[in-house]
Structures are given as C-alpha cells and as structure tokens.
Specification:
By secondary structure, the chain is an alpha+beta fold. Helices cover 27% and strands 25% of the residues. The chain has 7 helices and 18 strands. A hairpin with a 2-residue loop joins strand 15 and strand 16. Bound molecules: flavin-adenine dinucleotide (FAD).
Length: 309
C-alpha cells in the first residue's frame, strides 16, 4: 500500500495527533527541513508500540525525534513517519533521590525541577534544549558532565516490540555516544537517574550562573543546533575553525556564528543545503589547513549518502 493511501489506517490506529505533509522546520531548532509525509505526536507507550509495529509490518521508513535540536533534515520530503514523544511520554516521577523521566521530557525544565526538589546532578543540562530520549542517544553533556554521570538504567522498546531494561554498562556511553546510536531501531521510553541531595539554592545558583555564561558565549537568539562538530582532541573544534579564519563565514543563509565558531546559525533564510554546504566547507578547510578531521556532532537525516534514517 502506498504512503498516500495509509492515512485512513493511521487514523484508525488512534496513535495520537496525526499530521500529514508536516514541515520539519517546525520541529527542528535549525528551523530547516522539508515535509514529513506523516508526523505523529504519540499519545502513550501503547500507541508507540502499535505505531512502530505498523511501520515494521508495512516496511515504512520511520524515526523518533526529540526536540530536533541536533538534527539536520534535508530539504526534500521524508517519505515515512516521524514520531514525536514530546506530548505523550513526558511524565516525571521522583522517588527519594532517584528521578524517573520519560523520553519526551525536556531537559531544561527537568533540570530546574530537580533543582527545586533539592536533587543535584542535572546542572549540566540546564541550557541543552533537547529531550531525555535525544540526550541519552547523544550522551549529551556540558561542563565536563554528561548523562552517563547520573544514569542508572532505562527502558527501551526493542526491535521485537518488547520493553527491556538496560543498565548503564549496557548503554556503552562514551563521548557523545551511546548504544542507541548502534541500535537505531531501539527507542528509549524512560530512564532512571541517581541524583545527589543538595541545597536547592546551591543548585539553582549553578544553573543561573551557567545560563548567564551561555547567553554571553552562544548565539542563543539564532536558530542553530548547538555545536556542529565534535571536539577532535584536547583542542576544541572552535579553535581550529578560528585558526582557519572561518568565524562569520557565510553560505546562503547559513553562517559560522560570529559569537561562537562551532555554531552554525540560520540567519532566517537558510536552506538545509546551505547548512550542509557550510559544514562541508568548514571541515574541508580545517582538514586542508590543520590536517585535522572535524566530525559533525549534528545528525544528518534524509540526505543521499549521509542518511541516518
Ligand atoms: C542552543 C543549543 C545548545 C546546545 N548545547 C548542547 C550542549 O551543551 N551539550 C550537548 O551535548 N548538546 C547540546 N546541544 C545539542 C542538542 O540539544 C543535544 O544533542 C540533545 O541531546 C538533542 O536532544 P533532542 O531531544 O533534541 O534530540 P533530537 O535532535 O530530536 O534527536 C537526536 C537523535 O536522538 C534520537 N532520539 C531522540 N529520542 C529518542 C528516543 N526516545 N529513543 C531513541 N532515540 C531517540 C533521534 O532519532 C536522533 O537520532 C545544543 C543544541 C542547541 C540548539
């Protein structure tokens, strides 16, 4: 059955809010990306299981996104289904010094909630605009802390449709790496974190200080996906980019941020292609001039050769 004709079946499955030909620029912090044939705000875990099983049976391309804050979708149509967990899997439970958060919970709000409750450990995520699912996928981090430091265990929907529990060891955390990058057909649904009790005022003070620091050092008022490149070694990616004189360099509406040269910003009229061309230009220039390979941290989706999904 063609994707066009699947609409009625998807409605019958009652998976949640179903959008057709939904522009993905509305769901990414770069504010670029072509339409997804279907975009579904999954209403709960059962709906997610049903939706994934439907895709598997019908061989439909599909993926789960969080807040789209690390994604560069191409400008062309995503001929499949994009599932968002942000509306249906967004519960948080606090049990003593443990926090149990569903995959669609936003990191920034959660870091402030933890602070208020007097639980320390999420201060690193105060300025990261992603979800728990995307954060664990990336083992996101800042200020020398990352998810691996507080992670205890998680529940994952595996490719067989079962919910399985994974330990910290199972997750193979590394620098911006987790097992989920090796098992792209597994979906994190919930994670448990071991926190440390601390004075709420102390935690809030750290969050506020770091927020201020981000506001002065990052282009927070432009669309971006945070750091574009992984740090290749002890020297940060931005230092190599600066050495090559690329700060402020533009292609179309995409620009190496004058404020932070490891950010590429959308000046309001960038296409996905502008951003990808700029990523290639920066990495090629750094390789030629510094003999260092900068690998993108940003995830490329729905491109010809770099396809992730
Ligand atoms: C202004 C700004 C600042 C940033 N600062 C930082 C920073 O300090 N440190 C840092 O590490 N990152 C930073 N980032 C990048 C980004 O926010 C993080 O990588 C974040 O973890 C991505 O989360 P997300 O929910 O947006 O994931 P998305 O971008 O939506 O998805 C990322 C990947 O995770 C997968 N995924 C999402 N949810 C699930 C799930 N439930 N199960 C399995 N896979 C899933 C997606 O399929 C995709 O492959 C920043 C971004 C911006 C825009």
């Amino acid at each position: 059955m063609s994707l066009e004709k699947m609409y009625d079946q998807l409605v019958e499955l009652e998976l949640g809010e179903l959008l057709e030909d939904e522009p993905l620029y509305k769901h990414t912090t770069f504010k670029v990306g072509g339409p997804a044939k279907y975009f579904i705000y999954i209403k709960d875990l059962e709906a997610l299981q049903k939706g994934i099983s439907f895709c598997q049976k019908n061989h439909i391309k599909h993926m789960v996104i969080g807040n789209g804050s690390d994604l560069l979708f191409s400008d062309k149509e995503y001929t499949g289904i994009v599932f968002s967990l942000m509306k249906g899997l967004n519960n948080v439970k606090i049990n003593g010094s443990k926090i149990i958060a569903e995959a669609g919970v936003g990191m920034i709000a959660l870091s402030y909630q933890a602070a208020k409750t007097g639980l320390s450990g999420f201060e690193f995520m105060g300025g990261i605009p992603g979800t728990i699912g995307g954060g664990i996928y990336m083992n996101a981090g800042a200020y020398k802390y990352c998810f691996a430091d507080v992670f205890e265990s998680c529940l994952v929907l595996n490719d067989q449709g079962h919910i399985v529990e994974l330990s910290k060891e199972d997750m193979k955390f590394g620098y911006r790496h987790s097992l989920l990058q090796e098992r792209k057909d597994w979906i994190l649904v919930e994670a448990t974190f071991q926190m440390t009790p601390k004075d709420p005022k102390e935690i809030s003070a750290v969050l506020d200080k770091r927020k201020e620091k981000r506001m002065t050092s990052q282009p927070w008022n432009f669309a971006s996906a945070g750091s574009v490149f992984r740090n290749p070694d002890d020297k940060a990616a931005w230092q190599y980019i600066d050495e090559c004189g690329l700060r402020g360099f533009e292609i179309g509406g995409a620009q190496v941020s004058p404020k932070h040269s490891n950010f590429i910003v959308n000046n309001g009229y960038a296409s996905s292609k502008d951003i990808l061309d700029l990523i290639h230009h920066v990495s090629t220039t750094v390789q030629e001039k510094c003999q260092v390979l900068l690998k993108p941290e940003v995830i490329l989706i729905n491109w010809e050769s770099d396809d992730e999904a």
